[in-house]
Amino acid sequence: MAPSEPTHAASAQWLQQDNAWVLGIAGEWRGHRGNLPDVPTSLVQGEVRFDTATLRSWDAALASGLWQRLNPLPRPPVQLDLDGLPEGLREIVSLALTDAPAADTPGARTGRIAALGVATQAWWSEGRRSLTFVGEVLLSVGRLLRGRSGMRWSDLAWQVEQTGPRSLPIVALVSFLVGLIVAYMGAAQLQRFGAQNYIADLVTVGVVREVAALLVGIVLAGRVGAAFAAQIGSMRANEEVDALATLGVNPVDFLVLPRVLALLIVGPLLTAFAALVGMAVGWLVAVGIYGVTSLEYVYASAQAMTLPHALVGLVKGTAYAVLVALAGCLQGMSAGRSAQAVGDATTAAVVQAIVWIVVVASVLTVVFQQLGW
Fold first, then answer.
1. pTM for this model (two decimals)
2. Helix %, strand %, coil % for the chain, to 5?
3. Quick one: which of 99, 163, 200, 250 could link to 300 by a disulfide (CB 3.0–4.6 Å)?
């Protein structure tokens, strides 16, 4: 005996009524694996309505099929009237169409403009938050100068020890390798003109003015800035920062100010150390490879090492170090209260510090060149 035909088979059909198109859906659509009929090619404007008076059941497959048919429609000029759909199906389709506008349509362009506005607002909020934090740090410095700060000098000494002497090995290694590259590549070009005697000038000016400070800033961003963000972020996650505020202790005075002042102190010292290492590497290249005598190299270095070059390098190194401290503490104080948030803050601190360093390096270079220093 042949199986009986289903009593309420799933069916769907497009019908045109005046300036509107109606999609009639009927039968049992739960578990139905068929497809809805394609949108008529003439449907480029007007209104789309639905007739589901004889729809007995439905599931997510029907919602997915409706989304696939309706999403490519240009809205406007096509207007969708979802009132004819069952309440649950109407909410699903409406939400899907709102979250995923069709590509290359006015709706999609509106969505992109809205996304640009949200990104711009987030960038502006981030900038305001950074400026507010810098203002809080400056107020904390003012309280310290008036003798009203909650900073402990033992904390400052501890931070100086952690950020200064413990950074010397990595600063020496990076300065040695980068100084070797600068000296060797520069000397290779000078040799083409028989000007090996100017290796000292090239290395001294380049390393002292720019390279040493930049290397120190990048090393501190990866080693110290990340540590600051992780330490303060962990304290926020454990509610230790809230506990300090409850006890009447200003968190900026107690946590941020010692770290900023520590890098303010060790920044120029590490920059001077990195410059000396770079000049020493230049001496090895000039004397050991290109036959320049030690006396010639030392004399040329002394002639090239003017006070403006040294001051410019120290100013840049100090500025980069302070930026690293501000970025690390800012991200730590803004971190969420979870392990994932602390990790995100650590990453953001390194990225933000490097971006700030590059921007400030460009600005300072232009300013000093315009001033003739």
1. 0.67
2. 70, 10, 20
3. 200
